[in-house]
Sequence to fold (640 residues):
Amino acid sequence: MNLRPVLSSSLVVFALACSSAHPVPVSTLAPPPAADASAAPDDATAAAPTWGTLTVGGLCRIVTEGATARIRETQPDFDLAQLPAWVRDPASAPAIAGRTADQLYDLAIVAAVQGHADEAAGIVRLVRAKARNRNLAFVGATLLSELARRGAGTDETAQGAAIEAVFRELPRARFGASTVVFQLFQTQEQLAARVSAVHEQLISQDTARAALWYSEVMPEIVRNRARFLAVIERIRADYAARPAERDYAFGTVNLAGARDARPVAVGVWDLGTNPALFAQQMYRNPAEQPNGQDDDHDGLVDDISGVVSDGDAPHTALLFDPGAETLRQYGGFLRGVMDLRAGMASSPAAQRVLELQRGVTDAAALDALDRNLDAIGEWSHGTHVAGIMLSGNPFARLAVFRSVWAGEGRLYHHRGPTDAELDAERANMEAVAGFINRNHVRVVNASLGFSIEYLEDELRHERDRYHNDDEVRARAREVQRRRKENWRHVFELCPETLFVVSAGNSNEDVAEYDAIPASIDTPNVMAIGAVDRFGQWAPFTNSNPERVRVFDHGVEVDSLIPSGERVPLSGTSMASPGVACLAGKLLALDPSLTPQRLRTVIEETGDAIAAPFNGRIANETRAIERVRRERRPQAAAPRR
Ligand SMILES: [Ca+2]
Ligand SMILES: [Ca+2]
Fold:
């Protein structure tokens, strides 16, 4: 699900994705990399390479061949023979699809590894100039700044100036997220731990690229870390001294005291929510009692406030409990992760996370840390979402749908779901749909999603099951196909309910990447993207002109975690419940609104996002005014 970027374990992934972490070069395009003698042999009868026998040249070849093949597959009109010319003159290049941009980054990393700095930088700049997804205009800062440093000779002042020139190209709002990678990686041991973790996966283009990045590009960055940090601090101080930008007015409305509203059942489909924090607003199924019996004969015992799917956990266990020790040790890291992402590396919370990262010196420790931070995410995510969804709406009655399979990391750790588990997912989804319909839950927020890239990465850990990347990718496509069908099935089962889903945090086009459920086009689904507090398009947000038409605040959004503390979290996971909250308010004012009507009102009353992006930012004030103006007299609750 889209949790990853919210959590520390995904911090690295996030930093890379947003900063250019995905790096590459040009000379690899024409002739394959000058194969050194030890590179993988061409002879197909030779033994399959192992991580132990692969040289840097062999890794470069795997990445180059894979990237070249995938570009031919996904954008046949992108003629790689023209790449050198396009790098020289980006204006002459065609628009670049997102998947092509991914492959070009891989080629840029190879070029950088091979010492072709100009080609590497040229490819990144070509993507920045011509990517169809304009959010890609800011990627690549990590690689570009390192290439600039290398090109500046040995003089420290010149190196600093070269690095600064690259960072200064970033808009102020993107500076923090784009430079966090320099805070995170502090020691060579951390990089070695990453490499050995990669070595536990199948050899593929993606894992070969990751190995190159951590073993051939990042070490020099870590060695010169002080130089990068000095520049980052200088620019940050500069920004801090400038007048603050004006916050965007999201037009939030509080319905407290409204005499023309009535209760409405709403749902949060997530990894669990702490009902104690919303005691006055929990939905209660009138046909079910807490007695260990299935009073309403729907097959679910004690499904009073929702449906829970997590092994033997009863339907009253609405919150995931990671255990007291995990909470004690890791519960405090959520805020630090968020501070880091916002570029606030010197905060005490961020420093604690950095200390934690420094201690990760082998693959096992890395895995353990990921699991612990995932557990904290699973504990906190749905409560944070619920806090946003109920904000300013005392008329909302909250149902909780806790589905363990919707998370990343715990149930399917380093593997994919089996066919039987996919059947169990579907059965749980049908149970949720039944609850929604019987209890008239009118709007459901689902801040979750399944990306094929994440799944493939997990499948590559199953080296006894899959023998090559073709098998991995075929299985991943099959799992995605089934999951997409499951979601479509639920949406069709509940035509009276509006599902508000997160677009995802991978800076991708949801249709091109087939994001689930965000890419599913049915009348009762809205996929929501994220903007920051200035109303600017978030660096991580997924998008699509047709499927993601509405955005809301999704960067450092303040809400509750299960302990009752308030913590700012970021992601389209936080933007989606903002819109679900608005839908709940509109339904409290006019229960006759259909999902289609809700979509129309929310889209039409939103404010246009600044070019070159497209979409509307939800505006509660105008949407609520319109519903109050247009509803039929009998729709309003009787005035007391
Ligand atoms: Ca029941
Ligand atoms: Ca019962």
Residues 288-289, 291, 293, 295, 301-302 surround calcium ion (ligand 2) (CB under 6 Å). The domain at 264-321+373-635 is CATH 3.40.50.200 (Rossmann fold). The chain has two domains: 4-241, 264-321+373-635. Confidence is low (pLDDT under 50) at residues 1-44.
